[in-house]
Write a structure and sequence with these properties.
The chain has 414 residues and is α/β, with parallel strands linked by helices. It has helices at 33-48, 65-68, 99-113, 132-140, 155-169, 174-192, 207-212, 285-298, 315-324, 333-338, 356-359, 367-379; strands spanning 4-11, 18-20, 27-29, 57-61, 90-93, 118-125, 226-228, 231-232, 242-250, 261-270, 307-310, 350-351, 393-400, 405-413. A ten-stranded mixed sheet has the order 5-4-6-9-1-10-14-13-11-12, sandwiched between helices. Strands 2-3 form a two-stranded antiparallel ribbon. Helix 3 crosses helix 12 and helix 6 (174-192) packs across helix 9 (315-324).
């Protein structure tokens, strides 16, 4: 039996919570980082059916608040959730886009060690206060700066290297590769359209709709512009604001088992930071290692998983994650997306029922907690958005940076 369980979860709406004056360039905050963090924390505690006084420790995952909102030392903001949290230990965790998965693992270690009976995990990010060039720079700071960020390499460029490596290794024609990527993206848009919390609920829902956006207008500009070949705008995830939170506890302390899910296994594997020292840029080697660890601890294999939330920061990573999780053989996931697999109707495994980062949104520090929160809600029969056909075992695969930090969690129905 798993030693730790999730007993409460909450996801704020994701979106761009700002007002932008096109004439002046002024950006005004409409829902602050502080608001988002407090909302998520209060929501998770209420959902758990406990009081704030029952929380023994708080772990906050956030990628780059110092640059995004000029606020470091963010964990103590959790004290504003409830007066009873004052004097509790609070810690911020940072691992780029995997920050709140690492926060969850830190909380899990605290609970398993016996130092805490109940821990609150919050993931939060506010990205839209910065103009796009500045936001892109902040994200680039999570790359290997000397060999990547300092040379102008953005994250679309870094994941384009994986797309090129994948296409070359498996000798996939360019047109076929593009359709693989667009099919993965369209699947997420279709699912996200039914997620009331999603940042984008109106994205193109078919390959044909995406292809139509590739056609330049009279000015020579296409709505689905090329960002870093072969990745276009609709291959990229959203720049979002939002938060999510979880309450975890020792499994033997769970009261209402109908509203709890078991953390059955975790895998946390880290790749070398610079891409130029990594072999095999056609697969997620560290990701596969994390998957193997999580599956072994949970005592399962790929065929046991009913649904998964995977890190589709770019459509190529959705394809690579699908293979790393063992749902497709190496080099076959793209073809299986083209064949119509991994949808809500797939009897084997459904992917990104939430809409994924592509549609639900990607407030980087909140993404890992959000994945876990939405899987937990599926497992207890309270799905947000599309309902899984089978909801016994769900997997979260969250990565940080250019597939550097890899966090895989197996959650089971109680």
């Amino acid at each position: 039996m798993s030693k730790t369980s999730i007993i409460g979860a909450y996801n704020t709406a994701f979106g761009a919570f700002v007002k932008k004056d096109k004439a002046t360039g002024l950006i005004t905050d409409t829902k602050t980082y502080y608001d988002l963090l407090v909302e998520a924390g209060r929501g998770a505690i209420a959902d758990a059916g406990i009081t704030a006084g029952d929380i023994d420790a708080v772990f906050v995952g956030s990628c780059s608040p110092g640059s995004f909102i000029n606020q470091e030392h963010v964990a103590p903001i959790a004290a504003e959730i409830d007066p009873a949290l004052r004097f509790k230990p609070m810690t911020r965790c940072e691992c780029a886009c995997a920050s709140s998965s690492v926060a969850l693992y830190s909380a899990l270690y605290a609970v398993e060690s016996g130092r805490a009976d109940h821990a609150l995990v919050i993931g939060v990010e506010k990205m839209n206060l910065l103009p796009t060039p500045q936001m892109t720079h902040v994200l680039a700071c999570s790359s290997h700066w000397p060999s990547e960020g300092a040379l102008g390499m953005s994250f679309p460029m870094l994941f384009a290297q994986y797309a090129k490596g994948y296409q070359m290794h498996y000798m996939i024609p360019a047109e076929e590769m593009e359709k693989m990527l667009w099919t993965a993206g369209a699947l997420c848009y279709r699912n996200g359209a039914e997620n009331p919390l999603a940042h984008n609920r109106t994205g193109p829902q078919s390959v044909e709709e995406i292809m139509a956006l590739n056609v330049p207008d009279a000015r020579g500009k296409a709505k689905n512009m090329m960002i870093a070949a072969p990745l276009r705008l609709h291959d990229c995830s959203l720049v979002s604001d939002g938060a999510a939170a979880l309450v975890i506890t020792r499994t033997d302390l769970v009261g209402n088992k109908k509203r709890a899910s078991l953390i059955a296994g975790i895998g946390h594997s880290v790749e070398r930071l610079p891409e130029n020292v990594r072999p095999n840029m056609h697969e997620l080697i560290a990701g596969k290692d994390a998957v193997a660890k999580a599956y072994k601890e949970a005592g399962i294999g790929p065929s046991d998983v009913n649904f998964a939330e995977v890190h589709d920061c770019f459509t190529i990573n959705q394809i690579l994650s699908t293979e790393a999780l063992g749902f497709s053989a190496d080099g076959r996931a793209g073809y299986e997306y083209l064949e119509g697999r991994f949808t809500r109707d797939d009897d084997r495994v459904a992917i990104n029922l939430s809409g994924g980062l592509k549609s639900k949104g990607h407030p980087v520090g909140a993404t890992g907690a959000s994945m876990h929160a939405l899987i937990h809600k599926q497992l207890i029969g309270e799905p947000i958005g599309v309902k899984a056909k089978q909801a016994e075992i769900g997997v979260a695969f969250n990565v940080g940076g250019s597939a550097v930090t890899n966090c895989v969690t197996v959650l089971r129905k109680f």
